[in-house]
Amino acid sequence: MTALIPADEELTRRAQAGETAALGLLLDRHRAPMRAVALSLLGHGPDAEDAVQDAALIALRRIGDVRDPAAVGAWLRAIVRNRSRMHLRAEREAPGLDSLDRLRPGGVGPAHPPCPSVASHPEQVVDRHAMRDWIWDAVEQLPEPMRLVLMLRHFSGVTSYQEIARACDIPVGTVRSRLSQARSTLAQVLLATATQAHDDFSRLAEDSRREAEVTLEGARCGRQSREILELWPAETELLGVLSTPGERSHPFPAMRRNREKGVTQRLRHVTASRTVTIWEMDVINPVGVPDPCPPSLVWLMVRRNRRVQSLRVLFPASQR
Known about the structure:
Helix content: 40-55%
Structural class: alpha+beta
Number of helices: 12
Order of helices and strands: HHHHHHHHHHHEHEEEE
CATH class of the largest domain: Mainly Alpha
CATH topology of the largest domain: Arc Repressor Mutant, subunit A
Distance between the termini: 65 Å
Strand order of the largest sheet: 1-5-4-3-2
């Protein structure tokens, strides 16, 4: 006897109940019509493929928003249409993956206002659909170069290709290719690991937030605790605009110079994987300070066994 193929309505309800394999079946079933929408608006090429990949990942995050499960196909096509139109009318590269870009465990608010259909606290959405750890486990399985550009583009305030290129010291074309590979690989990993158990990544973010707060407090008082000194060893290297050209320097002296100028930082967002950490800060300059720091900055850290190997401080153009 031929097995009955579940209808869209049944698969959608099962996906909303947390059955990730059902969501995978939905995406496979509707991938062709989703691609047709993208091609009709963007033509053949990587932009259309990116729109379909973005829409699939948005669906992973927002399946719980579907009010009419029987019309999930129209909902998926609408997401592709919106992503394609955003690409066509954008005067500058805007962040993608919709609510996935705001999936920041431990964050205290989005760097950019979310669209009205996205919850103001994305972590609540993640918890409600029980998919946060699944997503982050898949991100961890990406090769580090892909993981770094993906986290910057979709999980931080460093969103433009030019800013990511500066952050990673790579050409803009390489950023584009790595992002495309990362999104395609991520979608494959998500479907392949849908039924597996996943680590609790909220704890990783909480630990990172605590480390950030203790580090900032140490900078304010001019003395770092033993636990921070262990995580920021002597071989930690400061890179980028705050470093000394041609010299290998540790981040703490630069932090000391800012403290002496009276410049302080307030933690706004934390995004953490096992090897990449992103801290987003608001900057408070004293009144009348010469050469004030931009109002926000981002700490981008690469780690090995939790210990920080390098820190690059970024000043996102969109937040200057």
